[in-house]
Amino acid sequence: xxxxxxxxxxxxxxxxxxxxxxxxxxxxxxxxxxxxxxxxxxxxxxxxxxxxxxxxxxxxxxxxxxxxxxxxxxxxxxxxxxxxxxxxxxxxxxxxxxxxxxxxxxxxxxxxxxxxxxxxxxxxxxxxxxxxxxxxxxxxxxxxxxxxxxxxxxxxxxxxxxxxxxxxxxxxxxxxxxxxxxxxxxxxxxxxxxxxxxxxxxxxxxxxxxxxxxxxxxxxxxxxxxxxxxxxxxxxxxxxxxxxxxxxxxxxxxxxxxxxxxxxxxxxxxxxxxxxxxxxxxxxxxxxxxxxxxxxxxxxxxxxxxxxxxx
Length: 311
Hints:
Blueprint: E1 6-10, H1 15-25, E2 32-36, E3 42-46, E4 54-58, H2 66-80, E5 85-90, H3 109-120, E6 124-128, E7 143-146, H4 149-158, E8 164-168, H5 174-184, E9 187-197, E10 200-207, E11 214-222, H6 226-237, E12 242-250, H7 256-261, E13 267-271, E14 283-286, H8 289-300
Parallel strand pairs: 1-4, 4-5, 5-6, 6-7, 8-9, 8-11, 11-12, 12-13, 13-14
Antiparallel strand pairs: 2-3, 9-10
Helix pairs in contact: 1-8
């Protein structure tokens, strides 16, 4: 009887994480080269046979858009090379903030990405901490939506904070903060913010008591870090003993690194779903390599992955 085999490949944006996943899984990362033309056009090429194989392609799709295009081209190449199954592993799913029409005449970018991946030939998606859970419904193929809480909660427990409060930086994240608080038997606080435009906070108010508490702000991503820094400042003013932040995806654009370094935050804990462009003594990175490696094994062996979810 024919037995399929697993092959792991990576795009250039996630090469470091992919090497960790491959090492954890116990197989070498597959050989793929990217040929680049003088005008910037590029062409991926698998330098080994993938015929009949279960191909897992690891690539986070943060800007520039070349990262998404590279993933699409690799999926297409695997399909045309007769791969048995093609799984796109997207630790960070780009354009996820465009999950709905929040005003007239704007695109739903997350749905567009889903359509392009389907057209390219993916048979499964594996991602982590989507900005909006409903994005899973944009796909007509199975989606394994993993939670970074699997690795964050053990770290929080290791801090031994006896007066813990979990906080959300905005109203949209209250479900996530409440889930952590329920699991850790902690209290909850919420920040209410008003924006003039994207990435610019007009005003922020705190709902909940943080006096004498060790606060951990939880979010799915950190971009400019303006929200986290403002929230930490308000919480310290309200008497918090310490303020930490956990964000799965460290986008960290603009002056984010400088803001974090000069902030009231004790530390920012992130994953390696997106590689850091700078190092900071206030930023701690926890790898998701073992988590993805474990899920790849379960998916390949058609095993349940439900036990891998904390919430």
